[in-house]
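Batch job 17 of 40 flagged for manual review because the log was empty.
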Amino acid sequence: MSSSVTNDNINEKPVSKIVYLFFEGEKTSDGKETIKLVDKRVSDGFFKNEEFGTAKDIANTFYKMVLFDKKNQVYKTSIIDNPFSPVFESYGKESMEKQIGKLDKAEFFYRYNDNDNISKLEIHKSENNQSNLIFTLKL
């Protein structure tokens, strides 16, 4: 007597997903930045270039986004501009200048590819060569 088991999914790879996390932030009366997740959206697919352009060469403050895998190991680290200090360009007759804004409230998003192996996101604020954990999210 023999039995035969077939598994049609044996050669299938995990479905790639793009995860979008939308955040709002506000500065408290003592100047600390508080972050909260306001929405999460997931779509099928992946993108090749996960990096955002940054202005960290102009501003001395940025956010470090750290993704952890299910073994709690660092999976990926990305740098994004500090949403409370946006860099914008102003144009004069003969020149272009980059300036740093100062906001008390901000909205921003972060996206990443997920093959069902991401467990946590940490947001660290880096300023003047110091880094502080300001937000943690279990995914």
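Reviewer: the log was empty due to a logging misconfiguration, but the result itself is present. The chain has a mean pLDDT of 85. Unflagging and moving on to job 18.
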